[in-house]
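Protocol step 4 of 6: structure prediction from sequence.
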Amino acid sequence: MGVLSVLACSAFAIGNNNPKDLNSQAASYHQEMVVNKIGIDQNLGDKIDLNNTFTDELGNQVALKKYFNEKPVMMALVYYECPTLCSLHLNGMIDTFKRFEWDIGDKFEFVVVSIDPQESSKLAEKKLASYLEEYGRPQTRDGWHFLTGSEENIKKLANEVGFRYTWNAREKQWAHGAASYILTPDGELSYYHMGIQIQPRVLRLSLVEAADNKIGSLVDQALLMCLQYDPDKKTYAFYALNLVRFGGGVMLLVLGFFLFRFWRKESKNNTTKQTT
C-alpha cells in the first residue's frame, strides 16, 4: 500500500510538472553531465608515445617522433570545424606568434591535432594554409604540422596530455577546454599554457626550459633560475629557494671579483717593493 501511495504521488507530481520545466531540467542535467567530462589535467613530467601515428595535412601517415628531434614542440588539440572555442584558441596562438620574435620551425615545432576522427587531411591542409597566411611568415611553412587521426590514436594522445573531452549530442559538437602544451625534444610534458591567451615572454621561457637552456639568452636562463612553473597559478612564479640560490651565486661572483682585484693589487705592491 505504501509503495502504491509513493508511485501515485510520483505520477501526480510528474503529471503536474510544466513540460517546459522538464525540458529545462533535462537540458541542465545534460549540460552538467557534459561539463563533468571535460577538463585539462596537467601531467607534467609524463611522456607521450612518439610512435603514435597520425595523418599529416598532405595525407601521409606519420609517427609523432617525426616532429621531435632537437627542438621543443608546441602542441594543441582542437578540431578544425569547431564553431567557437577552437577558432578563438588558434587565433589567440597566432596573435602570440605574430608578436613573438622566434619563427615557428626555427627554435620550435608547431603541431596541431584534431580530436574529431571524421575530419580529413584536406581540411587540415586548408586550415594550415589559412593560419599560415594570417601569420604572415610563409618561410616558416616547414615548422607547421596539422594532423588528423583515428579515434583510438586521438584518445591515446589526449589521455597522455590530460585533455578530457566528450561529444555533446544535444549540441552536435565536441565539448572541450583550451590548452597548449610545451614538450621537450624527447616528448616530455614540460609546460601547460592554459586558455586562449599566451604572453610571448612566458612562451619564450617555457620553450627555453623545455630545450634544457639550449636556446634563448643568458637573461632567459637567469630568469629561469629564479622562476618555477606553478601548476596552481598556471604560470611561472618566483621560487624562494631558487631566488636564494641565484642571489647567493651573484654574491659569490661579486665577492670573487673584489678578491681578485685585491689579490692583483697586493701582487703589484709586492712586486714594486721587491724592485725598490
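Step 5 (inspection) to follow. Residues 39-213 form a domain with the Glutaredoxin fold (CATH 3.40.30.10).
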